[in-house]
Specification:
By secondary structure, the protein is an alpha+beta fold. The chain is about 30% helix and about 45% strand. The chain has one domain: TULIP domain (Bactericidal permeability-increasing protein, domain 1). The radius of gyration is 22 Å and the shape is elongated. About 5% of the residues have low confidence. It binds 2-acetamido-2-deoxy-beta-D-glucopyranose (2 copies). Keywords: Signal.
């Protein structure tokens, strides 16, 4: 009889394990290593499909309905660059390398340091404005890429009570991106004038560091809006206490 019990137990373990072979275990409050592991498993193994348990849609490629890089003012680059129905590639290869916060006190500051090999935002664009001294305009398909990116995300939270549970309502969300290099490809610039368009693409890539410097604040803001949506979604979906495991005494 014990043999049967053991084999039933064994089957149960095997079948539950087989359901979610890569399921990471919940982390203790403030356990940065575990939280980084959890996130990295999510990126590397599960970013290809949505994850209803965390209220996440597909992460790679990530649908970007709209992103606007609006660099106004007196800088050397004055552009309004609008991306619609784009895809962002690269989240599956990003890794969390540092975590602070996520303790019991949800109002303290939380921080994630992330390294990403590359981000490519690909899809329809519209651009108007000037770059350094040259006017630029166009509507077509673009690929704006960055590589070897260091990203820091910081946010704090306030408690949000709902149905007797406490959720973390994300506030003060700030993100900075530092790519080692970046590149641009805009098809169909200047109403499809190929010579002008080719020259402009070459010019943008020759000056990509300077252009990135001039547009980094608006790029950070645009990516903040995008990633804030993801982070807010996760914390709005599950009570804060249920994202973590109580430490056993
Ligand atoms: C939680 O963190 C906030 C911000 O750091 C601090 O002001 C507050 O006193 C903390 N609350 C507790 C109960 O430790
Ligand atoms: C976008 O550009 C990057 C950098 O040149 C390239 O590696 C990537 O394959 C391109 N993506 C698409 C979908 O064309």
């Amino acid at each position: 009889m014990p043999g049967i019990a053991v084999s039933i137990l064994f089957c149960l373990i095997v079948s539950t394990q087989a359901l979610f072979p890569d399921d990471p275990v919940p982390c203790k409050y403030g356990d940065g290593k575990c939280i980084a592991n959890f996130a990295n498993t999510l990126f590397s193994k599960r970013s290809g499909k949505e994850d209803p348990s965390l209220n996440l849609w597909q992460l790679d490629p990530l649908k970007v309905d709209k992103m606007v890089i609006n660099q106004a003012g007196n800088s050397a680059v004055g552009i309004k660059l609008t991306f619609t129905d784009n895809m962002l590639y690269g989240i599956k290869d990003q890794r969390v390398v540092g975590v602070k916060g996520f303790g019991k006190n949800l109002t303290e500051q939380h921080e994630l340091r992330v390294l990403a090999k590359s981000y490519s935002l690909v899809g329809p664009y519209n651009i108007q404005g000037k770059v350094l001294i040259l006017p630029i305009s166009g509507t077509g398909v673009s690929n704006m890429s960055m590589s070897n990116i260091k990203m820091i995300i910081r946010f704090s939270g306030q408690p949000l009570e709902k149905d007797g549970e406490t959720y973390l309502d994300v506030t003060n969300f700030k993100l900075t991106l530092k790519p080692a290099s970046n590149s641009y490809l805009f098809t169909n610039l200047f109403n499809g004038d190929k010579a002008l368009g080719d020259n402009m693409n070459a010019f943008l890539n020759e000056n990509s560091d300077a252009i990135y410097q001039e547009t980094s604040q608006s790029t950070d803001r645009a990516f903040s809006d995008l990633f804030l949506g993801l982070v807010k979604g996760v914390f709005a979906h599950r009570p804060y206490a249920k994202l973590f495991m109580e430490e056993k005494l």
